[in-house]
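Ticket #4471: structure export looks truncated?
Reporter: QA, pipeline team
Priority: medium

Steps to reproduce: submit the single chain below to the structure queue and open the exported record.
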Amino acid sequence: MAESSLNRLKVEALDLFYQHRVDSNVSIEEVAGAVKDLIQEDKVKHFGHSEAGAQTIRRAHAVQPVAALQSEYSLFWRQPENEIIPVLEELGIGFVPFSPLGKGFLTGRFNPETKFDTTDFRNRVPRFNEVNRKANQPLVDMLTQFATQKNVTPAQVALAWLLAKKPWIIPIPGSTKLDRLDENLGALNVNLTPGDLESIENASSQIKLEGARYPAFHESLVGR
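Actual output as written to the record:
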């Protein structure tokens, strides 16, 4: 796979080579060892994980230092705070949160009546059914109110919150629209003070979020 990537990209080395999802049929030590060999051959520069659990990260790191972990993290999904972030900080591993805008929910563009295209993955995500969107709306309302005070957008506040958490947290919002890209980049100019962060923390802690983030069959593949 690494060789194929090198050929497609027409580069001599891959800057960051991720294992996207842990393979239960292959020991993590074997995976880390294979990447270590690629690094020694100057074909890969850094080793990354995606959606790996804390103990898996430790085991891999003992064989080949892990440079970055890519996992979901946002005000809409804060589970990494329990075990993952402390391990990353201890081992000096960068965190690359995907879906930092909660698959679009934190932008304020949806409401309980929103109808997604039939091909949209969110149709199968429990957190995005009509009942749960209604239950989770207070989180968006809180962000919107805060954004209005700052004269920015809810998405920019959500991204700025992540950027303010740790200097080694680099969110990766996705978009197919140039104006959304510009909006996301604008989060770099949103200065959240310690008081702002405390206010967001206090407000969000009062909101009980409903619904699993993935269908059951998908959730079983992550966090191992």
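Status: closed, not a bug. The export was complete when the record was re-opened. Leaving a note from the reviewer for reference: Residues 31 and 156 are 37 Å apart (CA to CA).
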